[in-house]
């Protein structure tokens, strides 16, 4: 499969009065053409910071991409100058945020907002831009688009506003769409409609989607592959089937155990006790040690190697690594 994006050994930090927060610590993943890759994990695990780094939206200062590369069409986005990055944003890589109301300007009609996006990135006339805007509104399921183009954001419901934000993100036919918690602010029925819309749009346009979420229900519905992040690192990754039916990292298992399941009777939800480590001074060993029921001595001393379980499935956990005992002997 063709790779559209390659993130390699990405490190992102933030300078604060209390010290340096190491928010993303060596993240590596690929995105293939036409797939949906879900990045999951609890708040503060680094999933949104990783996504914003791809768009180069990390404010510097206080944030900084300290190390690593983000390859898109042979370009390293970490080294691209800001004017070129402005052209890439929206045209090649687009982003959808959680709350559609904050993504839309309340004082400008949605038609103007979409047309402006087209005119900024494409050499077309205003009439052609309007035609594209109408086609996009139609694609995302806004009824009567000719009339609705004149309306303002407050004249739409929450679900409709999110559809408009999706239309704006896709209007220049980007190759990559990053959706950061796109359904969190919506109720469940609208959430299901928006997820169906993602699948429909992907089958029509072939766009590759990075879906950032903490909601495993959303992941189960739309993801092809899943990356699980914890304390700024990818601790497990695999196909949707591998992550849901054969999770190997205790944190991934904990996430799955804390989600209600309708297919099993009388299951008790088991929360993950404790809290994530302080990223001012992240532990040298496995960051999940303090919360892990299977933690061994080696876990606290050294970060586990990556164990490959299949072509897609890999996990960073000493439980999967037969070198754990040898490693402990060597660092004692
Ligand atoms: Fe638990 Fe150790 Fe595996 Fe970390 S490396 S998840 S502490 S068993």
UniProtKB/TrEMBL annotation:
Q: Does the keyword ATP-binding apply?
A: yes
Enumerate the CDD domains for this protein.
ABC_NikE_OppD_transporters
Q: Where in the numbering of this chain does the ABC transporter domain appear?
A: 5-256
Predominant location:
membrane
Checking PANTHER family in the record gives: DIPEPTIDE TRANSPORT ATP-BINDING PROTEIN DPPD, OLIGOPEPTIDE TRANSPORT ATP-BINDING PROTEIN APPD
GO BP: any one term: peptide transport
* Name of the protein: Peptide ABC transporter ATP-binding protein
Topology of the protein relative to the lipid bilayer: Peripheral membrane protein
Question: Looking at the UniProt record for this protein, which Gene Ontology cellular component terms does it annotate, in alphabetical order?
Answer: plasma membrane
Tell me which InterPro entries the record gives. AAA+_ATPase (IPR003593), ABC_Ni/Peptide_Import (IPR050388), ABC_transporter-like_ATP-bd (IPR003439), ABC_transporter-like_CS (IPR017871), Oligopep_ABC_C (IPR013563), P-loop_NTPase (IPR027417)
Q: Which residue windows are coiled coil?
A: none
The text of the family note is:
Belongs to the ABC transporter superfamily.
Q: Which UniProt keywords apply?
A: ATP-binding, Cell membrane, Membrane, Nucleotide-binding, Transport
Question: Organism, per UniProt?
Answer: Cytobacillus solani
Q: Which domain of life is it from?
A: Bacteria
